[in-house]
């Protein structure tokens, strides 16, 4: 069954803030973030866990690199790094609009969810504008002023014995379809950056996201054009190159045709019909020089026959 508890960020304690002090400087929304994946030397990777529940409260499309999720539902993510030195690492999660036209606009919640939503219980006022929340108890929410890009940061734990990754939970508390200043149907990217205590970016992973009422339906709908393109590409690859027919290398077959007629006009009409057929084929094969030449030869021969019949 899908995980469906609400994520309630804890109030930021002084100890928690001091532990990641160099990292809590917010970025300006005007500073457009890179969305290219970068594993770096630590082979940083983020993956969405499979949803094995009966109800798809979230579902991930590898083809689209996109997660579809219901509002106020948790998404489990696995964070993986190779950290042989044992240095302290942090993960920052930031939302950014996918379209370059809106990439400089901060992604914030709509007024209705910011004021009336049940997820606001016991939540600090400055956190309520954040669309994305984290279940990690040490997460710090930054970018709370106008013009700043909202994000949260949490320390990356050490994997448990027998595991190579760390699991964290995130949750969207506003829908993709919410009216401005909400997302207003604009596509967003979740940009995860692996950072050290000096805010140096060591790795990056970007995942597209859509917050909707029917994740599986929307996933299937958005994947269909992509699947159609793959099928079309495969079909074209199976076709002979340059539009040439599969009979390009086949030898020209000749048939001796005997027609018994009782009048010359009848045989003239038969020859004319054959000429019309070959003329039609020549028109269809005008972009295929090889086949066009073969048909043109037969067409020319039939014209000579027709000429002899009308002498």
Automatic annotation (TrEMBL):
The keyword Disulfide bond does not apply. Keywords: Activator, Apoptosis, DNA-binding, Metal-binding, Nucleus, Transcription, Transcription regulation, Zinc. The keyword DNA-binding applies. Binds 1 zinc ion per subunit. Residues 34-224 form the p53 DNA-binding domain. One of its GO terms (biological process) is apoptotic process. It is found in: Nucleus. SUPFAM superfamilies: p53-like transcription factors. This is p53 DNA-binding domain-containing protein. CDD domains: P53. One of its GO terms (molecular function) is DNA-binding transcription factor activity, RNA polymerase II-specific. Zn(2+) binds at residues 110, 113, 174, 178. Residues 215-230 have a biased composition (Basic and acidic residues). Its cofactor is Zn(2+). InterPro entries: p53-like_TF_DNA-bd_sf, p53/RUNT-type_TF_DNA-bd_sf, p53_DNA-bd, p53_tumour_suppressor. Residues 214-249 are annotated as: Disordered. It comes from Dendroctonus ponderosae (Mountain pine beetle). PANTHER family: CELLULAR TUMOR ANTIGEN P53 (PTHR11447), P53 PROTEIN LONG FORM VARIANT 1 (PTHR11447:SF16). Belongs to the p53 family. It comes from the Eukaryota.
